[in-house]
Amino acid sequence: MPDITMCASTTCNRSTQCYRHEASGTEPNPHRQAYFVSTDMTDDGCWYFAPQDTKKYVTEERNES
Fold first, then answer.
1. pLDDT tens, 28-43?
2. Which pLDDT value is given to residue 35?
3. CA-angle at 51, arms to 57 and 16, nearest 5°
4. What residues contact residue 26 under an 8 Å CB cut-off, 6+ apart?
5. What is the mean pLDDT of residues 41-58?
6. Beta 45-46 vs 41-42: how paired, if at all?
7. Contact 19, 50 (CB under 8 A)
8. What's the angle, vertex CA 39, arms to CA 33 and CA 40, rounded to 5?
9. 43 vs 60: CA distance, rounded Å
């Protein structure tokens, strides 16, 4: 379960590349998971886009605590 806010956008063309989207393989917690109410999609993309390698940094930060 990721400790991040997930995205449920159905119009994003980069959802399979974004760590915040379930289409990329990130599995949300079925009981407690935060989702964006709306995303800020522009012609340049999404302000909240997180590349797949973000998972590495999220995991490292949580292990340091």
1. 988 899 998 887 777 7
2. 93
3. 130
4. 2, 6, 19, 20, 55
5. 77
6. antiparallel
7. yes
8. 155
9. 32
Mean model confidence pLDDT for the chain: 81
Q: Which amino acid is at 56?
A: K
Tokens standing for 47?
């302000």
- Alpha-carbon span 49 to 40, nearest angstrom: 10
CB atoms within 10 A of CB 9: 19
Residues in contact with 27: Cβ distance below 8 Å, sequence separation at least 6, in sequence order: 1, 2
Q: Could you give the dihedral angle defined by the CA atoms of residues 43, 46, 37 and 30, in that order, rounded to the nearest 10 degrees?
A: 130
Closest CA to 4 of 36, 45, 31, 30: 36
What tokens does 53 get? 């390698």
pLDDT score at 21: 92
